[in-house]
């Protein structure tokens, strides 16, 4: 164990083990190699990420996040060529595959870029996981607490959704009481010690604040979206891809995929998540690299982050919309 | 107005705690949160219960001793005020209020509403205590710990950043300066969580410390890791 690690870091080794990627802990099973594999992975996690200081992990988040953001901007800009017609767009797709053509074999640069993006994603997710665990520990909460709170909040949200009012004639109050499911844990009115309170008047959270504290959920949405996006338009795997998928015809595949309304809606929703994640992510990256030293800089960075996020999201959002209203076909 | 106050009761640090409902509590809108707690204790004493204990100090917003969480907001409903300088204008007759201790791993509960704020002191001590106090006083920080309680990450970066921002002019040599900053960074990393730039700290801080103070931590860290590329930050600009 790292001697520099203080007790506060080691308070919950179990939660860290459970969260380390690629670790499947099976408490029931003894003997065999599976028993030794888990501590080894946990040790590797502790030595690499656990030993890094929080500002350093934040730097890793900022660097990998910036790489991914730059890619997203470039990806959006390239995709705008869909408005220039089928031929132009397919030529652009070919250009990406054959970049550095006379010197390098085809697809070389493409795979270099893919490897870089994958590495950035891995660093981003790993550092984010470790930082999340640290923040939970610093708040004095466990993963179980968070799961319980999230469930409660979702249930409350679902209960408060507007629903059609149906007139029901009043009947006598029931005499026999039913025991609540899960011992009343899902009832929104029963307050437990750690449940979030309704904030006082004037202190309710604004939308940007909610977006800022949703980085993990928007990140998860983006992870699912990217997976689907690659299966849909890169590998062409059914059922993610449309029936008309054809390797080499990037334009046709895009139109075929996004003319499905459900897919188009999912793409649009993911772009909202992307905008939120990018706006707060770029702002935080500026902080973590020491760019926001004065109040003026804070404002400038805020505006710049919002502009980049909005441009990328709106540019990308326009494509499913254009396909749906048959501007692009 | 009459209020119902759900107040956190916890016999000792290791004991499990829970809310006790106190009703009725006679309050007025210009009462501070601590005066509300006094009113709660009056009701409790009239009912023959043990009064709730809470951190209490100067009641002028300068000692940094007080601090409770009111409806999930550290210090209380008003922005940038210590608990003793709050008002109850956010509440109406018949409202329910939840009063808890400040919540953070770095601020363990001692009894009922009073918390242990030694983690702040431990970080200050790394920078030679009188020097750290001088730096914090210059900035106006009263070390109340509300920034840590407000942060969903349990991060004290506003406190640490403010200290680091005002430390450099107080050092005699660059070596002393770097050593103090490094020690504070290490101690802060052990005591507090990572910062996510959510800005909740700046809303509760009684001194109204600004968001850009957070950057002092990342700048000191960059200077420590790459001293050649990042020159040492030299403290706040004049007039800041």
Written account of the structure:
With 329 residues, chain A is an all-alpha fold. Chain A has a domain at 44-139 and 208-324: 3 helical TM bundles of succinate and fumarate reductases, CATH 1.20.1300.10. Helix content of chain A is 63%, strand content 0%. Chain A has helices at residues 13-19, 34-50, 54-79, 86-97, 108-139, 143-160, 207-212, 215-235, 250-258, 261-288, 295-324. Chain A starts with 12 loop residues before the first helix and ends in a 5-residue tail after the last helix. The relative contact order of chain A is 0.10. By secondary structure, chain B is of the alpha+beta class. Chain B folds into two domains: 2-115, Ubiquitin-like (UB roll) (Roll), CATH 3.10.20.30; 118-225, Fumarate Reductase Iron-sulfur Protein, Chain B, domain 2. Chain B has eight helices and seven strands. Chain B has helices at residues 33-46, 118-125, 129-139, 146-150, 157-166, 174-191, 200-204, 215-225, and strands at 2-9, 18-26, 68-70, 73-74, 96-101, 109-111, 114-115. In chain B, the strands form two sheets. A five-stranded mixed β-sheet of chain B has the order 2-1-5-3-4. In chain B, strands 6-7 form a two-stranded antiparallel sheet. The relative contact order of chain B is 0.13. The mean pLDDT of chain B is 92. Chains A and B meet through helix 3, helix 5, helix 10 and helix 11 of A and helix 6 and helix 8 of B. Chain B: Belongs to the succinate dehydrogenase/fumarate reductase iron-sulfur protein family. Chain B: One of its GO terms (molecular function) is electron transfer activity. Chain B: Its cofactor is [3Fe-4S] cluster; [2Fe-2S] cluster.
């Amino acid at each position: 164990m790292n001697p520099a690690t203080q007790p506060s870091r080691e308070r919950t080794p179990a939660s860290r083990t459970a969260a380390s990627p690629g670790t499947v802990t099976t408490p029931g099973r003894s003997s065999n190699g599976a028993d030794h594999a888990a501590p080894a992975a946990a040790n590797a996690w502790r030595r690499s990420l656990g030993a890094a200081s929080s500002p350093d992990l934040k730097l890793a988040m900022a660097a990998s996040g910036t790489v991914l953001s730059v890619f997203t901007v470039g990806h959006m800009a390239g995709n705008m060529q869909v408005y220039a017609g089928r031929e132009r767009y397919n030529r652009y797709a070919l250009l990406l595959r054959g970049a550095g053509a006379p010197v390098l074999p085809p697809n070389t640069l493409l795979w270099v870029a893919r490897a870089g993006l994958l590495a950035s994603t891995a660093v981003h997710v790993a550092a984010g996981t470790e930082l999340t665990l640290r923040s939970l520990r610093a708040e004095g909460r466990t993963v179980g607490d968070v799961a319980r709170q999230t469930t409660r909040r979702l249930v409350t949200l679902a209960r408060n959704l507007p629903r059609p009012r149906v007139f029901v004639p009043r009947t006598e109050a029931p005499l026999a009481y039913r025991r609540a499911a899960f011992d009343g844990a899902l009832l929104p009115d029963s307050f437990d010690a750690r449940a979030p309170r309704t904030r006082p008047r004037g202190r309710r959270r604004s939308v940007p604040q909610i977006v800022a504290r949703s980085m993990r959920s928007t990140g998860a949405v983006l992870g699912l979206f990217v997976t689907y996006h690659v299966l849909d338009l890169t590998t062409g795997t059914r059922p993610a891809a449309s029936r008309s998928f054809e390797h080499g015809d990037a334009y046709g595949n895009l139109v075929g995929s996004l003319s499905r309304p459900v897919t188009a809606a999912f793409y649009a929703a993911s772009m909202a998540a992307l905008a939120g994640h990018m706006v707060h992510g770029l702002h935080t990256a500026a902080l973590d690299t020491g760019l926001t030293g004065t109040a003026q800089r804070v404002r400038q960075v805020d505006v710049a982050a919002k502009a980049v996020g909005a441009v990328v999201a709106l540019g990308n959002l326009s494509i499913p919309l254009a396909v749906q209203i048959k501007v692009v076909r | 107005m009459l209020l119902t106050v759900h107040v956190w009761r916890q016999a000792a640090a290791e004991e499990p705690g829970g809310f006790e409902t106190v009703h009725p509590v006679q309050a007025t809108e210009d009462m501070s949160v601590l005066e509300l707690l006094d009113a709660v204790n009056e009701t409790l004493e009239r009912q023959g219960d043990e009064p709730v204990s809470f951190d209490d100090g100067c009641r002028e917003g300068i000692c940094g001793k007080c601090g409770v969480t009111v409806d999930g907001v550290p210090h209380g409903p008003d922005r940038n005020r210590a608990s003793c300088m709050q008002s109850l204008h956010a509440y109406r007759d018949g409202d329910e209020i939840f009063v808890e201790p400040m919540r953070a791993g770095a601020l363990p509960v001692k009894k009922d509403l009073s918390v242990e704020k030694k983690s702040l002191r431990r970080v200050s001590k790394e920078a030679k205590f009188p020097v750290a106090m001088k730096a914090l006083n210059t900035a106006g920080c009263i070390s109340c710990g509300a920034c840590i309680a407000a942060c969903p990450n349990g991060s004290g970066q506003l406190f640490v950043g403010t200290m680091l921002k005002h430390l450099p002019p107080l050092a005699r040599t660059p070596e002393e300066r770097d050593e103090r900053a490094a020690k504070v960074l290490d101690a802060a990393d052990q005591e507090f969580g990572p910062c996510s730039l959510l800005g909740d700290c700046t809303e509760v801080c009684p001194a109204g410390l600004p968001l850009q103070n957070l950057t002092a931590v990342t700048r000191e860290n960059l200077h420590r890791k790459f001293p050649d590329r990042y020159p040492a930050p030299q403290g706040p600009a004049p007039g800041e």
